[in-house]
Design brief:
Number of strands: 13
Oligomer: single chain
Strand content: 25-35%
Number of helices: 8
Helix content: 25-40%
Radius of gyration: 19 Å
C-alpha cells in the first residue's frame, strides 16, 4: 500500500474539509454516465473517489465542460485535484502524476483521400480540424510543422468544420472517430497514432507534498488492477491502462 497521507498532504488537498475533484465532462470515455445523485460517473470519478477514501474525507466532484476550462482554474482554489490529460502547457501551473490510462489519438480522412499514413498528414496544404485546447490538440500545436490546424470549439465543432470546410483530416481520439466515420461514407481512420493522450491526476503546483503522494497512489491503482477493473466496469473500451512510470 502507498504511504498514509501526511499532515502536509491532508492540509494541501482538503483545506475545505472535502476533496474537490475537477472532472472533465467532455471526455466520454472517462465520464460515461451519471450516478443516482446526479454526479458524473465513470473511470475518472472512480479514481477521484478512491483518492478521497484514502484521505478520509468526503468527495465533491466539480464538473467542467472542457479540459481547458478545468486547467484555467489551477491556482484559483476551485479544485484540489484535476483529472485531465497531462500536457506541457498545462504542466506550467499543474503538477501531474504519471498517466493512469491512455487513449490513442489519430486522424480520420475523407472518401477518396490520398493520405495513407499518419506521416502523410503533416504536409503543406493539409488542413486538420481539431478541438481547441484538447490534450491531443495541444500536442498538435507543439508538433505539427507544415499542415494547418483549424481549431474549433469542442468535438462536435471539429467534426462540423471538417465536413463543412471539406478539410483534409480530422484529429481525434480513436473511439470518437469510430463513431464519426459511420456518418461519412468512404471515410477512413488512419492506422496507428500520432500521440496517446495521457490521462493523469493533477494538483496545483504549490501542492508539492500532495503531488508526490498522488504519484504513489496512481502507480498503486495501476499495479493493483483498480484502473483495469474501472475500465471494464464502465465499458470504457478505447482506454488502456498506462504503463508503469
Amino acid at each position: 500500500m502507498s504511504q498514509a497521507p501526511s499532515k502536509d498532504v491532508i492540509a494541501e488537498l482538503t483545506s475545505t474539509g472535502v476533496l474537490r475533484a475537477g472532472i472533465n465532462m467532455s471526455n466520454f470515455l472517462l465520464v460515461t454516465g451519471k450516478r443516482p445523485n446526479g454526479d458524473p460517473d465513470g473511470v475518472s470519478p472512480d479514481v477521484a473517489e478512491e483518492i478521497a477514501r484514502r484521505l478520509g474525507v468526503p468527495l465533491e466532484l466539480v464538473a467542467f465542460k472542457s479540459p481547458g476550462e478545468l486547467g484555467d482554474q489551477a491556482g484559483n482554489n476551485v479544485w484540489d485535484i484535476g483529472n485531465i490529460g497531462a500536457e506541457p502547457q498545462r504542466a506550467q501551473t499543474i503538477a501531474f502524476t504519471a498517466a493512469y490510462c491512455e487513449i490513442e489519438a489519430t486522424y480520420l480522412v475523407p472518401a477518396g483521400s490520398s493520405i495513407k499514413t499518419i506521416a502523410d498528414v503533416d504536409k503543406p496544404g493539409i488542413r486538420i480540424a481539431v478541438a481547441g485546447r484538447s490534450a491531443y490538440g495541444l500536442w498538435l500545436e507543439n508538433n505539427i510543422k507544415h499542415a494547418k490546424l483549424v481549431t474549433t470549439d469542442g468535438l462536435d465543432g471539429s467534426f462540423n468544420a471538417f465536413v463543412a470546410q471539406k478539410l483534409e483530416a480530422l484529429a481525434g481520439l480513436r473511439p470518437r472517430l469510430i463513431d464519426d466515420v459511420k456518418k461519412l461514407p468512404g471515410a477512413r481512420i488512419l492506422d496507428g497514432q500520432f500521440s496517446a493522450v495521457q490521462q493523469a491526476v493533477g494538483t496545483p503546483r504549490k501542492n508539492q507534498a500532495a503531488a508526490a503522494w498522488l504519484g504513489g497512489v496512481v502507480e498503486e491503482l495501476k499495479a493493483s488492477g483498480f484502473i483495469a477493473k474501472a475500465i471494464e466496469k464502465h465499458k470504457a473500451f478505447g482506454l488502456s491502462v498506462a504503463p508503469k512510470a
